[in-house]
Amino acid sequence: MQLRDHPLMTRKSGLKTWPPKWTTTHRNRDEKPIGEVGTLEDVMMSDLIANEVFMWIQWEDVQYMGFLSFDDLTFRSQIGTLLKANIGRSIEEIGDLDLSSIL
Known about the structure:
Blueprint (H helix, E strand, L loop, with lengths): L22 E2 L14 E7 L6 E8 L2 E8 L3 H13 L5 H5 L8
Antiparallel strand pairs: 1-4, 2-3, 3-4
């Protein structure tokens, strides 16, 4: 099963967390790319916001930020670790990753 289709990538509320909603990190820009775009540059997890994973991508020479929210905190940690191991890969490639072992 691919990351994008894993059942825990959908919140109990029905909200799909993949792909992240992207926002620019530049004050003078307002672009918000949609979908599995860009290359993963960085990943951060914080104990202050225990259910989210923050991601930064590079797309069309601009940096964007997004986040994933989870109901299952163990799965959140697994995804955060997986994302960190895939820095430098495209978001589409990451969405294609097989997560059959994390069911």
